[in-house]
């Protein structure tokens, strides 16, 4: 059994003059290790995998895995586990990808329901079961009907929870009833996938979050997790209230444009995306920069956490 608790960051893919910026990507990995992130997600939605060809995807994953190992004896040497996003709506092709990933030192695979074709719940169960049977690594279900066009119903999730390699769910369905039922069932670790739901999910007993906005203030997100899981509700509430405007702004335009814009403003990457994704608007960039100013109340809560 793997542990998927804590704050996981679904890495963006930085570009420079149209090509993948591997140096910037490596620096981001070590930055989040130093910040206390529990793990990383490679080639998730935030990483724009649909805009990468197969060779680029493999190269991005190789860079992340190498940087995530850390350097023994060096500052920031703490290794980070890496989940890998696997998406598609052709089960046979996804099985081939799973076989490739079996050979790599990854923490698991993050798999969404087949998009666009909107299969039945029986078809979804068969799809995930086939992929989990083929995987040597733990499987994290990704329930995001906003993107796939189909949700994983509670009965489907509870059925899949019986599979020995299906261990967690990235919960983006927006159903408090489902979130609570999964937490109470206890077989799947529940990770908030909607960043604004992190506070609620953790207070209900969820295991953590996969949070794109945690790119921006990773130490503060880690402090939020630690405060809430160690019973410091007041600290956690102050941290979340301070983070909430930044979280909301990070999704005011299509992800990952806002996150990339603020990372670029911080000097960490270039503000580049690949079509059909476009840069965040100037107005949103100005809003993000204003929200990124230090907040003394949040800093105090972060220190106590």
TrEMBL record:
NCBIfam families: dapA. Its main location: cytoplasm. Pathway: Amino-acid biosynthesis; L-lysine biosynthesis via DAP pathway; (S)-tetrahydrodipicolinate from L-aspartate: step 3/4. GO terms for biological process: diaminopimelate biosynthetic process; lysine biosynthetic process via diaminopimelate. PANTHER family: 4-HYDROXY-2-OXOGLUTARATE ALDOLASE, MITOCHONDRIAL (PTHR12128:SF66), DIHYDRODIPICOLINATE SYNTHASE (PTHR12128). The active site is at 142 (proton donor/acceptor), 170 (schiff-base intermediate with substrate). The record marks 45, 116 as: Part of a proton relay during catalysis. It is found in: Cytoplasm. Its EC number is 4.3.3.7. HAMAP family: DapA. It holds the Pfam family DHDPS. The gene is dapA. Catalyzes the condensation of (S)-aspartate-beta-semialdehyde [(S)-ASA] and pyruvate to 4-hydroxy-tetrahydrodipicolinate (HTPA). Homotetramer; dimer of dimers. InterPro entries: Aldolase_TIM, DapA, DapA-like, Schiff_base-form_aldolases_AS. Keywords: Amino-acid biosynthesis, Cytoplasm, Diaminopimelate biosynthesis, Lyase, Lysine biosynthesis, Schiff base. SUPFAM superfamilies: Aldolase (SSF51569). This is 4-hydroxy-tetrahydrodipicolinate synthase. GO terms for molecular function: 4-hydroxy-tetrahydrodipicolinate synthase activity.
